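# nightly structure sweep
# worker-07 picked up a monomer target from the shared queue
# config: single-sequence mode, recycle default, output format = C-alpha cells
# input follows
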Amino acid sequence: MFGRNQETEETRKVISDLRQSQESIWEELKKLKKQVETLQESLAAKERAEEKEALLETSDSEPAAGVLTSFSPEPSRLQPRSRVFYLAAPTADGLFVRQSATEQIGKSIYKLVSADGVNGNFILLDTPDAIATAMISVSQFVKSVCKVNGNIASMPRHIITEEEGVATRDGEGWRMVRKAVVRFE
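# output follows
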C-alpha cells in the first residue's frame, strides 16, 4: 500500500511540474506572438514609408515659383532617375498589389524598373527564394503575367527572362499590360 501512495505522490508531482512548464511555455508563446505582431506592424509601416518615398521620388513636380533652376535662358528639366520596385505575387487578373523598394525574401517574385513612375518593365527574379515562391503556384504566381517556356514539372534551377513584361501604374499597384516571356531551366 505504501508503494502505491508513493507512486501517486510522484505522479502528482510530475503532473504538477508539467502543468507549470506548460503554463510557462504558454506565457512565453504569448510574448513571442506579441513580438511577431509588433515586428509585422513595424515592417508594414516601413514598407508603406518606402513606397511613399518611391512615389515621391518618381513624381515629376515643377519647381516652386521664383526658384532659379538654371542659369541658361531656357529652364532645363532634370531627367527622372529610374526606380526599382520589387513586386509580390500578382492577382489572377495581372495586378501587382504589393510592392517594395527593397527585395523581400519569400515575398518578392518580380522586379519592375520604371523611369517615369507610371510605366515600367518587369522581370521574374532569378533567385532561389523567388523561384521557390513562384513554384508554390505557377498558375497563380507566374502564368497570370508571364508566358512560360520550358519544363514546369520539375523545380527549375534558373528562370531566364527572354522578354520583359510591361506594366503601368494602376492606383497603388501595377497592372500588367504585356506578359513577360520566361524560360525555366
